[in-house]
Amino acid sequence: MSLSASDLDLLRGKAATHVEAIANLAWRICEVAAPTGQEFERARFVASLWQERGYEPEIDDVGNVYVTRRGNTENRPLLLLLAHTDTVFPASTPLVIKREGEKLYGPGISDNSVSVATMLHTFDLLDELKMETAVDIVAVANVGEEGLGNLLGARTAVERYRANLGAVLVIDGGLGHVTRGAVGSKRWRIIVRGPGGHSYGSFGKPSAIHGLGRIIAALADNLQVPADPKTTFNVGVIEGGTSVNTIAADASALLDMRSIDVHMLDQLAEQARQIIEQKAGAGLRVEIEVLGERPAGERSLSDPLVQLAGETLRWLGIEPRYGSSSTDANIPISLNIPSVCVGVTYGEHAHTLQEYFLVPPLALGLAQVGRLCIEASQLC
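The structure assignment produced for this chain is given below.
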């Protein structure tokens, strides 16, 4: 059963009173470095924030922080609420955070400190209004969403509750977006090895760098990908060699392949594998190291949870934009578990030192997540 008009008004009005507190909390969370794979310090800080609220958090072996808010119905599937704690920035990055009018700046402030802060305030909001949910909600501040984290936190959380999991809500991205499609990816390290030698004295011996260059050029020239379903590839990092006058004995590159379509992604990977294995040149050895795989999938526009997410945004005066992305929702979507990913405010320049979000729209973002938690729990 949906919330009454008076309950919705109450929810929206109360959410507006949390705006500055969410912004301040996002600031505090952002001040704790959390590179992918090094999230434990931030996990401990988030756990302390839950303890201040009277909850009993648990930190698991990978660094996920779990908290449960009990529902009023027993023996029903639970609702999982995810917001990732990791950032793309190395631990050495100066975490300079500043407020300029309605904008709050900081490395990782919008991706994803503000989402973690909103998750905490969602429970605050429901507790203040004494609003019950039909099932238990498990909030997870999870690790490993960015880069080569390979969705470790989401995988771990979903596997932990999979036997009793009714739906998943992920907080990430921009307000107004409803991510219902999971962009799958395969990430490989291409390694080329050769004999090496002096650039003059051993001239003529095969170079690992030259072989890697031939592979990269062949990938760019020969991989054919469709525009629909959108399928992409990119070589993002190249490493190798010892000095300007050394024939390289080792060289490597990182290859990223993506598609919303599982079969198209597999076809692309097979094409890439054939090129990698054939194009390095004589006298060189090639290896492929799998760094990560993110599953693909899609929820229908007619899915009740997707419809609820759209209806909730329209209630707030926002026309929903449905799309696909690579988020923690990839894991439950690929397992056919009702799932969407939503954002809580607007921002720009994610993954740069100029990253920021707008503070006032948090009133809408919090109201959105609060309503989704209540009404999605009834779908479980």
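Interim note for the steering committee: Residues 109-128 form the longest helix (20 residues). The chain has two domains: 5-182+296-377, 184-294.
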